[in-house]
Each structure stands twice: as structure tokens, then as C-alpha cells.
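Field log, afternoon session.

UNIT: design team B
ACTIVITY: writing a sequence onto a fixed backbone
BACKBONE:
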């Protein structure tokens, strides 16, 4: 059975995301208020070399106050394809221009609360541009 949406209004918004209040009917027939996040899609790229090493970034993340290895990634800008966004993010964040990209994964990892799609690509070559 499917959920039904009868209405939606913004509770808060920014250029990157919107928190919404939805008037929904659950599959059991109960009508409730549901909260969701409408966010831009994300593109990432796994760039490897001939030795199968992966180009990654060591980053601190404010919200979780953690450090970790990450693939270059960022938001898909209006008018940009996910592949174009992935290539742009690799170049901006690492100084490497990826070779041809092929899609590895398409996912909506938190589809119960957020509508952001995640596109992950692979490039087997890259050129250092500075």
C-alpha cells in the first residue's frame, strides 16, 4: 500500500534544503502530519589509478565532530548533470581532473525522511591540474 500526500508546506528553507510538513495518509488509513527534508541531489566520484588506489579526502565534519576519509562529492547544481557535478567536485576538491566517468551507484539512502538522490561514479584515470 502507498502513502498519500494531501498537502505540503515549508517549515523552513535555505538555498540547499527545505524542511516540510506534509499532510499524509499512512497505508493503514490514519491521517497524520509527517516531516520531510527536500534537498539537492549529491554527486561523488571514486577515482582510481593503475594500482587501484582511490583518490580520497581526509576531512573534519562539523555536525558529527569527526574526521574521516571521503570521496570527493558535492551538490548537483541547477542545469548540471550528476556526472558533470561529480567531475567538477573532484577537480575543485582535489586538483585532479577525472577521466571518463561511469555510473556505479544510484541511491536514496534516507528515503524515509529525505528526497536527495546520491549518484556515485567511477573514473579509472585522472590528470593533475593543480
Amino acid at each position: 500500500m502507498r502513502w498519500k500526500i494531501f498537502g505540503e508546506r515549508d517549515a523552513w528553507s535555505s538555498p540547499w534544503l527545505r524542511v516540510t510538513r506534509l499532510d499524509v495518509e499512512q497505508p493503514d488509513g490514519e491521517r497524520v502530519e509527517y516531516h520531510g527534508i527536500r534537498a539537492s541531489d549529491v554527486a561523488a566520484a571514486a577515482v582510481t589509478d593503475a594500482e587501484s588506489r582511490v583518490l580520497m579526502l581526509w576531512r573534519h565534519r562539523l555536525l558529527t565532530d569527526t574526521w574521516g576519509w571521503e570521496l570527493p562529492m558535492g551538490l548537483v547544481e541547477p542545469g548540471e548533470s550528476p556526472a558533470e557535478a561529480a567531475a567538477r567536485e573532484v577537480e575543485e576538491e582535489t586538483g585532479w581532473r577525472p577521466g571518463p566517468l561511469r555510473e556505479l551507484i544510484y541511491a536514496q539512502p534516507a528515503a524515509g525522511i529525505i528526497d536527495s538522490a546520491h549518484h556515485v561514479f567511477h573514473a579509472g584515470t585522472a590528470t593533475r591540474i593543480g
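LOG NOTE: DSSP finds one helix and eleven strands in the chain.
NEXT ACTIVITY: expression trials, pending approval
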